[in-house]
Write a structure and sequence with these properties.
Layout lengths: L10 H23 L4 E2 L8 H6 L10 H14 L3 E7 L3 E9 L20 E4 L12 E5 L5 E5 L1 E3 L12 H4 L6 E8 L5 E9 L8 H27 L5 E3 L2 E3 L3 H12 L15 H23 L1
Parallel strand pairs: 1-4
Antiparallel strand pairs: 2-3, 2-9, 3-4, 5-6, 7-8, 8-9, 10-11
Length: 300
């Protein structure tokens, strides 16, 4: 797991940087998958039955990878559902929710195993997940081994003064057991949560279960960071305007690529700073292979 959020001299600066970090990740994801989001931050109750009465229809995330991550956790921990979210100062953005039976490709589930909120936007105070970013939890094995980490484990929300009066806790089926761990960005900021809940209380998590949630949170941010970096570099090279692919910037890539691939000596110059580093590494390796291949042919 990444280190805790860096300290900053002024609290408002810290909030500002964390907010910026959330949306650095969220905006590229939103541009690709956002049309599936519901907005549930202006409803009277988040209880599942109340939402259904208001005509709310939970939608599965269009990000199949995140849905698969969430379903893996739900199956391994044998809980009702798992949610993957980003959290800023005002809202919680549920990027994916999965139950044990939800289809990765659609919102189809087995009977009595429906999605609750799906891919949605909530008011931050209405959810539980913000608490896993400011608390510490401990998982315990039967043999006595423990693991303490940043996060939150609530054995029974109806017995917790912070959550016992919430409609989605009091309802049936309601949120009884909850566990969540923070998602850290590559810069070390807590920007979201990987959380599970069940309609039955349980004592705690086992060590390997808490570790699984931490590893899943790390896999999630690697997935989201890749999307963020891809959108950072490639829109400048491939723009679609009125159905036509605009490739003017690609000419600069091709010019440098020709210099690399056909140079008589191994290339030591650096590509333009705007190039994607993954592309640079790929081109450099390709040049090395071609250069050594020509060298070997000349010596034979």
């Amino acid at each position: 797991m990444a280190s805790s959020a860096p300290l900053h001299p002024h609290p408002h600066a810290r909030v500002s940087l964390e907010e910026r970090e959330v949306h650095r990740i969220y905006q590229p994801w939103l541009s690709a998958h956002g049309s599936s989001l519901n907005v549930a931050n202006h409803v009277d109750s988040l209880a599942q039955e109340d939402l259904q009465e208001q005509g709310y229809e939970a939608r599965s995330s269009r990000d199949k990878a995140l849905t698969a991550y969430a379903q893996l956790v739900a199956l391994r921990l044998d809980v009702r559902r798992c949610m993957i979210s980003l959290i800023d100062t005002s809202n919680q953005y549920i990027l994916a929710e999965a139950t044990r039976t939800v289809s990765i490709a659609s919102s189809r589930t087995a009977e009595d195993d429906e999605l609750w909120l799906g891919s949605a936007v909530l008011s931050r105070p209405d959810a539980v997940c913000e608490h896993c970013m400011i608390n510490t939890c401990t998982a315990v094995d039967e043999g006595g081994a423990t693991l303490t980490a940043k996060g939150l484990i609530v054995p029974d929300c109806r017995l917790d003064d912070r959550f016992k009066d919430r409609p989605y806790v009091q309802s049936e089926p309601g949120v009884r057991f909850y566990a969540g761990v923070p998602i850290y960005s590559r810069n070390g900021y807590m920007i979201g949560a990987c959380a599970v809940s069940d309609d039955l209380p349980r004592a705690t998590l086992k060590v390997d279960e808490l570790r699984l949630m931490q590893e899943t949170a790390q896999s999630v941010i690697e997935h989201l960071e890749c999307k963020s970096l891809y959108d950072m570099y490639y829109p400048e090279r491939y723009r679609v305007v009125k159905g036509k692919c605009c490739l003017e910037s690609l000419a600069h890539v091709n010019h440098w690529q020709e210099h690399v691939l056909f140079a008589s000596e191994p290339c030591v110059s650096s590509p333009p700073s705007s190039f994607c580093p993954v592309l640079c590494e790929m081109l450099a390796r390709q040049h090395q292979r071609l250069y050594h291949s020509r060298t070997n042919q000349g010596n034979s």
